[in-house]
Amino acid sequence: MKLSGALFGLVAENAAAFNCTESCTCSEDLVQCISGELTEAPESFPDQIQLIDIRNNMIEYFALKKLPSLDLKYMYLSNNSIEQIEDLNRHSFPELEELDLSNNKLKWLPMGMLRRMSMLQRLDLSFNSLVSLSTIRIPSSLSFASFQANRIESIPKRGFLDVAHNLAILDLSLNKIETVRTGAFNNAHNLQKLDLSSNIIDNLQNHAFSGLSNCRELSLRDNLINDIMPNVLKNFGSDVPQIPGGRNIIDLRNNELFTILDDWISVFGPSTDECNDSFCPKTTEILLQSNPLFCDCGLQEVRDRYGRFIGDLEYAKCVNNNFDEPVTLAKFQDDSCCAPELTLLIN
């Protein structure tokens, strides 16, 4: 997480106003100890501190209770070896806006810790060792949260996102999630980007993403999905304001899908043959490359009727072994199929 130029202006000319270690820069509202080879956090901090930046050290334990909490706005603790954060125990940070704990060794967070950060807007817990989200409660103020590259196995249906009404970006990629449950994201109704790529997801329960009516981008790339139920994606992106050329993206590349059924792709709009006055809106784009698609009459009919929603027809390949050379979904044609003649519209 990069510091804005304005934050560096917090450094006072007289650093001696606060007694700090040789590897730190201190003022009445700032303590910076970047790449100082510290094995322990500073013993104390100024009463009116607004920014703490102790990135790139070797700290293993961090006690929040010794921090003056009323004015603190930015806390950057990434690239350490922090395994444990002391329980807040009613200690709150009412002005904290950014918290970066990425690239540490955290396995859990104290229950209720984030809820006491009522102004928190950005949270980065990527590249840790978190196994569960059950103790984490996203505060209503949060707009960005990253849990990338942990060991998370499931998404809690209750607690984790109960009041995440302003969350816009959520990154859960590179974890060990297997199932996305019904209504898992219903409370995060303002979510605009959700990344679930590079997990081991093989089960999408019905209505798993129905609450994401404001979402523009959903990544399920690099998972083990082999089937999609009819209402899994119903209402996805339905409330996103449409602009010329703008499309909602659903990335399903590199999964185990062998076919596409019209009962789930049809939720994005009418088929080509049902469009009025030859105008077919394309509000959603699905990416299917690197799936083991078995091209047959059924898939050909779905392509002909809903092909405008598939953004990589020219790259998604059929795996049937009866072709002399690889055939893409766009070029596959079986004249023996009984489907009515339809013109494929690719926008």
Automatic annotation (TrEMBL):
<dbReference type="InterPro" id="IPR001611">
    <property type="entry name" value="Leu-rich_rpt"/>
</dbReference>
<dbReference type="InterPro" id="IPR050328">
    <property type="entry name" value="Dev_Immune_Receptor"/>
</dbReference>
<protein>
    <submittedName>
        <fullName>Oidioi.mRNA.OKI2018_I69.chr2.g5199.t1.cds</fullName>
    </submittedName>
</protein>
<dbReference type="InterPro" id="IPR003591">
    <property type="entry name" value="Leu-rich_rpt_typical-subtyp"/>
</dbReference>
<keyword id="KW-0732">Signal</keyword>
<dbReference type="InterPro" id="IPR032675">
    <property type="entry name" value="LRR_dom_sf"/>
</dbReference>
<keyword id="KW-0433">Leucine-rich repeat</keyword>
<keyword id="KW-0677">Repeat</keyword>
<feature type="signal peptide">
    <location>
        <begin position="1"/>
        <end position="17"/>
    </location>
</feature>
<dbReference type="Pfam" id="PF13855">
    <property type="entry name" value="LRR_8"/>
</dbReference>
